[in-house]
Design brief:
Keywords: Signal. The protein has 183 residues and is mainly α. 77% of the residues lie in helices and 0% in strands.
């Protein structure tokens, strides 16, 4: 009695998992990058957005800059993910397949350029996060600034390009609790 019951349960689980696999491959909801009403932002438009928010920050117009900073880093993050997604088959490839792609210099150079562009957008996003925190401090929203600094410090790298940003973010954070590094 017990064996037929277990057998039925086993086959039911197998049937459900096969059905789930079939359903998952056609379900596009997990690939939705944009919310309703959002659009793709080109690299040229991102540069304009960055220039605009940086101009306002330089003029100490933080209140006006804050929504522009948020719009920039959200778009930069999505654009970076789109660029990176184009390289996904290479990332998922076997070692032999990667070696095969490596022999096609034009393709490999294109993949490298896309990866570099994606990484640069991530660095620009990280800068925007720190700029947002600085503006939040300027307008007196210290708690929100600390949250933004925590997030930024989770993603800022320690490579040469980002060490100054890392120092700036940690110094801003530490200053909020009275810790000074110039002692």
């Amino acid at each position: 009695m017990r064996l037929p019951f277990l057998s039925v349960c086993f086959w039911a689980v197998v049937a459900l998992s096969v059905n789930a696999q079939e359903g998952d491959s056609t379900d596009l909801s997990r690939y939705e990058v944009f919310k309703e009403g959002e659009t793709i932002v080109s690299l040229d438009r991102l540069q304009t957005m960055e220039d605009e928010y940086k101009t306002l920050v330089a003029e100490a117009e933080c209140k006006e800059a804050l929504p522009m900073i948020v719009a920039f880093y959200e778009a930069a993050n999505k654009t970076s993910n789109i660029l990176r997604r184009g390289n996904e088959p290479f990332y998922d490839a076997t070692r032999d397949d990667r070696e095969s792609v490596g022999r096609n210099r034009d393709l490999l150079n294109t993949l490298i350029a896309a990866e570099n562009a994606s990484n640069n957008l991530i660095k620009q996003r990280n800068v925007a996060w720190v700029e947002e925190a600085k503006c939040l401090l300027q307008v007196g929203d210290n708690e929100a600034a600390i949250h933004r600094l925590y997030r930024a410090l989770d993603y800022i790298g320690t490579d040469h390009d980002e060490q100054a940003l890392w120092k700036e973010a940690r110094d801003l954070l530490w200053k909020e609790v009275g810790f000074r590094t110039d002692q």
